[in-house]
Amino acid sequence: MSRIAARFAALKEQGRGALIPFLEAYDPDPATSMAILRGMPGAGADLIEIGVPFTDPMADGPTVQRAGQRGLKAGATLAGALAMVRDFRAEDDATPVVLMGYFNPIMSYGVDRFCTDAAASGVDGVIVVDVPPEESDMLAPQSAAAGIDMIRLVAPTTGDARLPVVLNASSGFVYYVAITGITGTRSASVADLATAIPRVRAHTDLPIAIGFGVRTPAQAADAVRVADGAVVASALIEKLASTLDAQGRATSGTVRAVLDDVRALAEAVRSARG
Known about the structure:
By secondary structure, this protein is of the alpha/beta class. The chain has a single domain, classed as Alpha-Beta Barrel (TIM Barrel). It has helices at residues 3-14, 30-43, 62-73, 78-89, 103-109, 111-121, 140-145, 163-167, 190-201, 217-226, 234-242, 254-271, and strands at residues 18-24, 48-51, 97-101, 125-128, 149-150, 153-154, 174-177, 208-211, 229-232. A nine-stranded parallel sheet has the order 5-4-3-2-1-9-8-7-6. α2 (30-43) links the parallel β1 (18-24) and β2 (48-51). α10 runs parallel beside α12 (254-271). The longest helix is centred in the C-terminal third of the chain and has 18 residues, at 254-271. The two termini are 29 Å apart.
């Protein structure tokens, strides 16, 4: 059983949902990013999503774009993100790690080489936002052979005819995009989620995590009441950015501030189902 499947199975046994915090690799520098990554499980992260900075992040809102720019300025590469996971695995062999990004860096790295190196580094899943199921033969066979889950995005605009196409090509879990548009710009209503998630569940047995608009502990709690996980990205990046100095460098409080927010989110998620 993969780490992702094992973690969701364990959480189901416990009767609770998953908190999936996000960090951008190398934001604002490699050491700070690594310290946040290492601290996330202890702060309550059940799975961790790592963004791979890219120069043309079409699905990212301004907050994540700025984080990616800081990461690129600090020297982030796909190889660097893999090295972060490899270093993380030296201390944590249980927490699932998912890379989120775009196909161009993978193509430049080499698809076969990427899948081999990602698996060896301890990556459990990938979200490649610009590779639809119709074009998945560029990556899916190699990732499956390497034991890496291909996690697909489902949006409110994904119709009933389209859902099986997307979900049949998915593994690990389903990432439900709670809003239409780019990340971090607004939030979905509880009523919308309560209607949308059962529609997705009718087509898959995979766990469903809600992202793109989950910002607060209360919203994370709402998400895991109707789904299996809550992904929080922009709010954590904004907290990180608020601690940087005038030159955009980390301060003594940067790591602690982000992890404190992860703890607050984790507490809300863990108590959401009473």
